[in-house]
Amino acid sequence: MSITNHKCPNCEAGLPFNPEKGLWVCEYCKSEFTEEELNSYTKKSEKKTTTRKKKEVNNENIVEMDMYRCPSCGAEILTDENTTATFCVYCKNPAIIKERFKGEFNPDYIIPFKKTKQDAIEAFSRFSKGKLFTPDSFTDYNNIQEISSIYIPFWLYTCDVNGEINVDARKVRSWRSGDYRYTETSYYDVTRNGELIFDRVPTDGSTEFDDNIMDSIEPYDYSEMTEFNMSYLSGFLSEHYDVNKDDSFERAENRIKETTKNYLNNDIHGYTSKTIASSNITIDNLDAKYVLLPVWLLNTKYNDKIYTFALNGQTGKMVGNIPICKKKLIIKSSIVAGLTAIITALITYFG
User: Which of 312, 307, 308, 309 is nearest to 295 (CA)?
Assistant: First the structure.
C-alpha cells in the first residue's frame, strides 16, 4: 500500500489546502497553487511504497493497524483501517493513503473546507461565551487548539417517491342558543397522494461519528460540491465509509418517508384536528453518491464523559452540549441567594 503527501514544487515543504483562499498554499515559502498546477506537478512526482504490520493493543485483542513510512522524514505512520488521510506526528506533513481510494472507496464528490481552524476556534469561543457554569477547562486555549478538521464520508441519495396518506380529521363547531351552548363534531376520512423528488438526502457512512450530531450540522450547500480530487485532503484528516450504501439507506429512507407524510399532511386544511391513520410510500429510481463533507470536531472529556462539538466546515453551523461545573453552580447560586436575602432585608427594614 502506498502513501503520498503533497509537496511544494518550489521548496519541497508540505503543501496543505487553504480553505480561505481555495488554493494550496505553502506555509514556508508562501507559494500558491491552483488545482490544475498541483495536478500537473503531482503526476511527475515519484511514488513510494510502504510496509504493513500488525500491532497488539491492550494485550488482549489483536487489532490490525497499517504502518507507513512518511515520504518526507521516514518516520512511521500508524493508522486504522478506515483512515484515508492523516499527518506525520514528527514532521507534521500531510499523508494521503492512495490505496484506500480504489474501487468502491473512491468518492464521487467532495465539498472542500471553507472554514479555517481560526474560524472554528472563534465559533467555539462564541458558542461557549456567556454560559456562566461552563468548566474552565472547556474554554482553556490549549483545549480549544485540539479542534481537528476531518472529511467525513456521507452517502447522498436521490430518488422518486410516490406517497399516499389516509387522515382522520375532525371539525368542531360551537354556538350558544339561549341558556345552552352546543358543540358539533364532524368526522372525515381524508386522503392525499402525490409524487415527490428527493435530491441528495445525506446520511453519514461512518460508525465512528454520532449520527445525530452529523444530522444537526446540516444543511450543506451542494452547489459547491466538486468532483473528488485527493489533493483537497492535503492538510486534513479523512475517513472512508464503513457503512455501505444499502445499510446506510435505512436512515435516509426513514427521513424520506417522514418528510413525504408531513408534506402531504400539510396540504390538508380547514380541519380542527387531523391524525395520519395510515400511509403507503414507495421509492423508485434510487441513486446513491459517495461524498466527503468537511467537519471541524472537538472532543473534550469532563468528569469521565466525552462531549463532542462539531462545526460544518463549509457553512460554519455549530452544535454541541456544554457541561455544567457543579462548583461554579454552587458558588454563584450562593452569591445570588445571599444578594437576594440582603435586598429583601433592606426592603423590610426601610419599608
Answer: 312
Distance CA 212, CA 142 (A): 27
pTM over 0.70: yes
Q: Which residues partner with 180 through β-bridges?
A: 177
Burial of residue 219 (number of CB atoms within 10 Å: 0-12, 13-18, 19+):
exposed
Distances (CA, A) of 276 to 188, 189, 191, 197, 262: 12, 10, 10, 22, 9
Q: Tell me the three state secondary structure of residue 340.
A: helix
- Alpha helix positions (H), the chain: 35-44, 117-128, 136-139, 141-144, 211-216, 245-265, 326-350
Q: What whole-number distance in Å separates Cα of residue 348 and Cα of residue 351? A: 5
Cell, residue 334: 450562593
Distance between CA atoms of 211 and 338, rounded to whole angstroms?
A: 44
What is the band of 149 on the pLDDT scale with cuts at 50, 70, 90?
A: very high
**Angle at CA of residue 144, ends 292 and 333, nearest 5°:** 125
Are 274 and 263 contacting, i.e. CB atoms less than 8 angstroms apart?
Answer: no
